[in-house]
Backbone:
C-alpha cells in the first residue's frame, strides 16, 4: 500500500510537471490523471492533488508554465466522473452536476474557505481558479443554492480586494451570477461602481466587457465612452456596438 502511494505520487507529480510544457499535451495528461483518480479513494487523491496544486497557488507571477498548470487543474476537477450515475435521459448531462463530483466539491470548499488568505498570490489564484472552474462547467451546470450563495458572497468580497488582479478574476467569476432582471442585484451594483470608480483601467475594461446589458446598465456603459483611458473608451464603443443589436430586448425588460 505504501509503495502504491509513493508510485501514485510520483506519477501525479510527473503529470503536473508535464502539463506546464504546453496545452497540446493536456488531453493525454487529463486521461492519465483520471485513471489514477478512478483507482484512488477520493480523500486520499484530494490530499495529494491539493499538495501538488499549492505549488502553483503561491506564485503570483504570471509565468506561462504556472498559467498552464492552473488551466490543467481547472479542467481536471470539472471532468472527474467517478461514482457518477448514468443519466436516465440520454439528453441529460451528469458531468455538469457539481453534486455528483466529489473532487470538485472538495476543491470549491477549499477555495471558498481560503479566499481571504493573507497571501495576495493565494487570493489571486483562488479567484482565478473559481473563474476558470465556472467557465469549464458550461452554461447548464447545476449548482445547489448553498454553494451558489458561498461563491456569490466570497467573490463579492474579492471585488473589494486591494490587489487589481484579484478583483479582475472576481469580476470574471461573477459574470454568470449577475441577474439583469433584478434591480437590486448586488453583482451589477458592484460592477457599476467598479466600472466608474476603479483606479485600474483594466478592471474598468473587464467590467465593461462582462456586465449584462439592461436599462439600468446602459447609461453607465455609455458614460465609459468618456473614460480618461483610451483602452476603456475603445472597449465602451465596442460594447455599445455589440449591444445595439439587442436594444429591442433591453427596452422590453
Residues:
Amino acid at each position: 500500500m505504501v509503495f502504491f502511494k509513493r508510485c501514485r505520487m510520483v506519477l501525479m507529480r510527473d503529470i503536473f510537471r508535464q502539463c506546464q510544457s504546453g496545452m497540446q499535451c493536456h488531453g493525454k495528461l487529463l486521461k492519465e490523471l483520471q485513471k489514477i483518480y478512478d483507482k484512488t479513494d477520493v480523500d486520499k487523491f484530494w490530499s495529494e492533488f491539493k499538495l501538488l496544486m499549492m505549488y502553483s497557488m503561491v506564485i503570483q507571477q504570471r509565468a506561462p508554465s504556472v498559467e498552464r498548470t492552473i488551466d490543467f487543474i481547472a479542467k481536471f476537477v470539472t471532468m472527474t466522473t467517478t461514482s457518477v450515475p448514468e443519466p436516465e435521459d440520454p439528453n441529460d448531462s451528469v458531468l455538469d452536476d457539481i453534486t455528483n463530483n466529489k473532487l470538485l466539491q472538495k476543491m470549491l470548499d477549499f477555495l471558498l474557505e481560503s479566499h481571504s488568505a493573507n497571501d495576495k498570490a493565494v487570493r489571486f489564484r483562488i479567484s482565478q481558479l473559481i473563474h476558470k472552474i465556472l467557465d469549464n462547467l458550461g452554461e447548464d451546470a447545476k449548482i445547489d443554492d448553498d454553494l451558489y450563495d458561498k461563491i456569490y458572497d466570497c467573490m463579492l468580497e474579492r471585488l473589494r480586494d486591494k490587489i487589481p488582479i484579484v478583483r479582475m478574476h472576481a469580476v470574471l467569476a461573477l459574470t454568470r451570477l449577475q441577474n439583469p432582471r433584478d434591480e437590486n442585484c448586488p453583482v451589477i451594483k458592484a460592477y457599476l461602481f467598479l466600472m466608474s470608480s476603479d483606479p485600474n483601467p483594466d478592471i474598468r475594461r473587464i467590467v465593461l466587457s462582462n456586465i449584462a446589458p439592461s436599462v439600468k446598465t446602459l447609461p453607465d456603459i455609455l458614460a465609459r465612452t468618456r473614460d480618461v483611458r483610451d483602452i476603456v473608451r475603445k472597449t465602451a464603443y465596442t460594447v455599445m456596438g455589440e449591444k445595439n443589436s439587442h436594444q429591442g430586448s433591453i427596452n422590453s425588460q
In short: Confidence is low (pLDDT under 50) at residues 81-96, 248-253.
